[in-house]
UniProtKB/TrEMBL annotation:
This is Polysaccharide biosynthesis/export family protein. It comes from the Bacteria. It comes from Lacinutrix gracilariae. Gene3D superfamilies: Outer membrane lipoprotein wza domain like. Residues 43-141 form the Polysaccharide export protein N-terminal domain. The keyword Protease does not apply. The keyword Acetylation does not apply. InterPro entries: Poly_export (IPR049712), Poly_export_N (IPR003715). Residues 1-18 form the signal peptide. Keywords: Signal.
Amino acid sequence: MKKLFFALSLLLTVFASSCIPHKDTLYIQNKGNQVDSLQTIVEQQKAYRVQINDILNIRVKALDQENVQIFNPIGNGDLNASSVEKSYFDGFTIDLHGNIRIPTLGKMNVLGYTTEEIEQRIEEKLLEEQFKETANIFVTVKLTGLKYVTTGEIGNTGTNVLYQERVNILEAIANSGDIPVTGDKKDVLIIRQYPQGQKIHHIDLTDVNVMQSPYYYIQPNDMIYVKPLKQKAWGTGTNVLQNIGAVATVLSLISTTIILLQRI
């Protein structure tokens, strides 16, 4: 009987410790460690500078639109193609050398420039080589959607594209099916591409200060990785009720084994 009581106490301790705390399941909690947000706000407001493999959507307008038709997609492609596919075929992909190839203008290096700076460069080159000031050339350059990848312990893994100028980490995760209870919200990894290579950044989504992080807004080609909690690896329940059920099953098995052994 003492052995049974000891086994019961041990199992209850193990399963109680394996429950996922409620505070670890909540987003943006006020943990009382408010920090100065001036520097991070400045970082968040910096314009994105294009990278290799980004796809740009370039449109040129003028008083006589026929004169600039060559710069704009005709739009007679596959009508069944998705928006992402159309963006790929109609857009201008930045190659490994940081160049895009524009009709009549040839190659132009845009690596590390903002979309506004690229607009100015194309407009200046058109006025130098193709048109006069009276043509009223107007150039727009945009990224063809904000593409990112989600992997790990998250609702839906894979590549996602959102057609917005800015997307924060919570929006990106919500668009990917949210993080389940078994996902680690306290240490989410953002793998970001830079001209020098990739870097890993860690953010805590349970802390309200995440909104002041320079990595709160995601960038094109970011990879968001959510690690599973240890409780999932242990195979235990995520709450007390599930653990009680597991304990009852184990105890039933132990009791049955003891009774059978006593009868031998």
